[in-house]
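Mods, move this if it's the wrong board.
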Amino acid sequence: MEYTDDRYHLHVAINPKQFDLGRADLVRLQQGLEPLGERIKDFASADLLITLVRHPHSNAYHVEAKLRLPGRSLFSGDWDEYLPVAIDRCIRKLLRRVEEYIWHPDTDAEEKARQLTNLERDIVAPEDPDAGPLGAAVRDGDYRTFRMALSPYEEWLRNRVGRWLQRSPEAQARLGHDLTIGDLVEEVYLNAFEWYHQRPTAVPLRDWLERLLDPSLQILLRHPDEVAENASLARTLRETSLGPA
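Not the wrong board. Structure tokens:
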């Protein structure tokens, strides 16, 4: 399961393997994350992946946590025959790693994250989809300015593209030959430029860019003789830009 705790700007993904996580254990886990959330709430964003694995032969549980903060990913893990014990210890150790990170922060990475948050706040303008520097660049047909204005998204988008390509066996087979991560990054930017004024403006720009990943990859993977796909791809892009999530 996945959810976002807006109190702490924290996105959480919980991935149990080899067993079903009960309601009581889930509630306990979510409550146990609150001290961690309090310590990271001043960061612009954070992503937490918790993997819980049951090993039937040893009748034990392995809990792993990966927390991605600006400029740093923090890891923690623990084993125990009782799941709540393994979870509690894993979270406590992760919290100590967070404390260490706060004492010795990556200030450059934090500044980039703040710039990204400010950019999103400036760009998401439901009242006027043509407002702001991106709207002006699109009106002027100035792709270079549009592309430069989105440069704070570069690292994030490349990471998302890399993960997205892993979902496609065809893309994996062609990666490094006639397809690169940079190709898909640029295709997303190009499609964003073309469809910018028709995007759902109440959606954060980062979420909208992520929606463009799949149709952009389809465009790059299609073969030249598959002309019939053009209309379908155009429709997909239009629905991505105009429709709700």
